[in-house]
Design a protein that fits this description.
homodimer; about 500 residues; alpha/beta; Barwin-like endoglucanases; Transferase, Pyrimidine Nucleoside Phosphorylase, Chain A, domain 3; Pyrimidine Nucleoside Phosphorylase, Chain A, domain 2; six-stranded mixed barrel; five-stranded parallel beta sheet; 18 helices; 18 strands; about 20% strand
């Protein structure tokens, strides 16, 4: 049976999909997600069947090619295609075994991740794997094998120098310690290749905040050029493709907001391994409204990170920190960048908690690398402005202005002051509400939008004290943030 | 932000999908499977986002509509669309709760099934539900609620007469008792509305075999016309849409060949409830190479079917039967139809096991309905040819020839005799190998292809005795079946 090729002009970035009319599919006994070898002239490739169930332009006798099929059949523009039905990929058997609660071997997991990276599995099939891991977990050995398979099936960096790295589990607005730790480690003479994410549900990811000052999107080679020059970088991981299997998991986890611990652990450690990190510090903030909500969960995650790290030959240290309120005072890209610069400039407006936390993490990381008197060392690096100079050097290497300074920064033009409606002491600040207000004001899309916290936990307030100021460049967005604040305050005052 | 509408000319029969370029998706902070309200002029509808990750014809500023979007926005041909981001559908929260191992209430399950039927959930999302049920199961109450929700969200039939029904769990080639039970029950004066499936992995489903003699694809109204005239029918369930939520599950279960028991149970019983069955007989064949492989599994399934049946007000009787070898002698649509006709014609070539089993099931079903001396009754109905006449009446009502007879049937023109290579007694016949040989010969696509078993279990054979004959209409397909037989024999001889 031959089919007339039709270009669907559609690309999904996933498997090479071919569309058949349902009558032809029935005739060939083919079902959604079945694998076929597609022959066009002397060329052939493997495709995944999708079936047009209703009316469409793929008629009986035609076959619709997604762009990925043409890419794989280089040179083919049209003509006729023949199909050969293939057995399901080996990876499916492994996913089914996991669903049944069986342990997968190192070889199994490598095969699975290889299949994921080569786009051999459909979304439906991989969702089953994520579901199995969410429900039953993976043991330490499986998680380590997953991390190693992700490294093996992605790009890697192998520098001769000692490489340090840090990671934060997240969920706390304003927690931009990375932007202080990176220049400090580099100023101390160590290499640190920091790839970060953008905001997914937060008001600003590290990449969004760095982007308020410089570019964050670089190829791997351009990034290595920056590291060679400055010993550090703060770039967006999404453009580097260090652990590409991970992107696929993220896509499937998002609709149900799943975040299975073993995939989280494997994905974090795989990224550290990919950049060739010798010492890795991981920060787990704990708080009722943070990502990790209890100390018990934090300790379990800590143990898993340490055990798996050890199994894959990474020197991992994990600290559990306070995530009960935002860190620093600014929330939103520019507002957070200003906090960071104030710390680096040793300005008196520098938020003490951000400064203390960044110094603590830098000290721990340098200590891991064998630096003597690291606690004193990091203070010196800050006070001497070595860290600020290094920061400016990196920002400039990433295409930002020379000698960036906090006074250069501009905030949103419309503001709203939210005031206390009673006297008392602040007991808690809800991270999720703070994030919501900053995103309503336009962050992270609008870099200058966000909010500034005038008061934080344990501080006393009077009636009518200004608690926070919202910044926005849109009257509508400011008014949305205002409406939200009228409905629910992020401050608990007693 | 306004988008220029582009008709993708693609329909999937699933949710209303809109495609965005990845830059626009980033700008709007939208991800795959996010829900949006789509406004075009004064019309609006809900769509599911998909993102073009590579190159495609949806450029920044454009929005690709799948055919389902145009169907929902009746009258809209093009122009500009605005989007409003919606919260995820309630059904997702329920799926996540199931993944966490929580029990779902009747209301939860109704909401979920309603969402499935209205195509509110993406494939990824529903796969998580199937995975959760596969791994953790559903309790009896949840299964009953699922069955009732499927009935409620599909078409139903409500006749005034007493309706009987039967179902077979399957996995045994040649097991065409339905085609004898249906005319017998109808000849006894009861109504039986039998919807069956086509072969998915077998050589012939009941629908494929009936189709060797008559049409099986009818609308619900046409089918009811046949039932009104003859009291029975044997049609393809896929065209009737009695339990439409079920089709969606089947699509998602297929890639990994999952068949979670609770979904199986709910789906079988929902279909029986939908046709208004008063008495339901379910046959579970057990055998090493059948669908249900052990007596223990069969008993567990039996109990579940009975308990859930009772909870939804169905009178269910379950029998466990021998599935250790094919039933009858023919395998493949026409070959099976010939076995059935031989039984009905009381021909001496009628396979005894098929006849005995069909009479046994008919007897049990009539007994459930209160027929006295049902064992004797079914024998009379057979010997008097009342059942044959009723069968011919139904076949004719379904568009087949008048007075259909076994002598009308034509088998594949090319044949191959497979012979024993030793003397002994047949210990077992592998159902899966038999299915494989018949499908290699061309069944069920070619109605005349298949095989005929000359010898069955417990029979003695000499060296060179013909064990089976393969029938095909293609020399190539015959040769494929031959090659397979040379490699592995379905007969175990001792």
């Amino acid at each position: 049976m031959k089919f007339l090729i039709k270009d669907m002009h559609v690309s999904t970035g996933g498997p090479a999909i071919v569309l058949l009319h349902k009558e032809d599919a029935k005739e060939l006994d083919l079902y959604t997600a079945d694998r076929v070898r597609i022959y066009v002239g002397k060329k052939s490739t493997i495709g995944v069947i999708d079936i047009l169930d209703g009316e469409g332009t793929v008629k009986p006798g035609q076959i619709g090619f997604f762009t990925e099929v043409f890419t794989k059949l280089r040179g083919v523009k049209g003509g006729f295609a023949r199909l050969e039905v293939l057995p399901p990929p080996e990876a499916l058997r492994l996913i089914k075994r996991k669903l049944r609660g069986e342990e997968l071997t190192k070889k199994d997991i490598e095969l699975l991740v290889h299949g994921i990276v080569l786009n051999k599995c459909s979304d439906i099939e991989l969702s089953y794997f994520v579901a199995a891991v969410y429900m039953d977990g993976l043991n330490t050995r499986e998680t380590a094998n997953l991390a190693e398979a992700i490294v093996k099936n992605g790009k890697s960096i192998n520098l001769r120098s000692t490489v340090l790295d840090k990671h934060c589990i997240g969920g706390v607005p304003g927690n931009r310690t990375t932007m202080i730790v990176v220049p400090m480690v580099a100023a101390a003479g160590y290499t640190i290749i920091k790839t970060s994410s953008r905001a997914i549900t937060s008001a600003s990811g590290t990449s969004d905040t760095v982007e308020a000052l410089a570019s964050v999107t670089f190829t791997k080679d351009k990034m290595l050029g920056i590291v060679k020059k400055t010993k550090g970088c703060m770039v967006w991981g999404g453009a580097i493709d260090l652990a590409s299997a991970d992107d696929r998991f993220v896509k499937l986890e998002r609709p149900l907001k799943l975040d299975p611990e073993p995939i989280l652990v494997a994905s974090i450690l795989a990224k550290k391994k990919s950049v060739g990190a010798d010492y890795v510090l991981i920060d787990i903030p704990v708080g009722k409204t943070a990502k990790v909500t209890t100390n018990k969960k934090a300790r379990s995650l800590k143990n898993k990170l340490k055990e798996v790290g050890e199994m894959i030959g990474l020197n991992v240290h994990v600290v559990i920190t306070d995530g009960s309120q935002p860190v620093g005072r600014g929330v939103g890209p520019v507002l957070e960048a200003r906090d960071v610069l104030w710390v680096l400039e040793d300005d008196k407006r520098a938020p003490k908690d951000l400064k203390d936390r960044a110094l603590y993490l830098s000290h721990l990381l340098l200590k891991m690398a064998g630096v003597k008197k690291s606690k004193q060392k990091v203070k010196e690096l800050l006070v001497s402005k070595s860290t600020l100079l290094k920061f400016q050097e990196i920002i400039s290497a990433q295409g930002g202005v020379e000698h960036v300074h906090s006074s250069d920064l501009k905030l949103g033009q419309y503001t709203y002051d939210f005031k206390s409606n009673k006297k008392g002491k602040i007991k808690a600040i809800d991270n999720k509400f703070i994030t919501k207000i900053a995103t309503l004001a336009g962050a992270p899309k609008n870099k200058r939008a966000g909010l500034y916290l005038h008061r934080k936990k344990k501080e006393k307030v009077k009636n009518r004290t200004v608690l926070l100021t919202v910044y926005s460049d849109s009257k509508q967005e400011l008014s949305n943030a205002k409406s939200f604040l009228r409905g629910c305050s992020p401050f608990e005052i007693q």
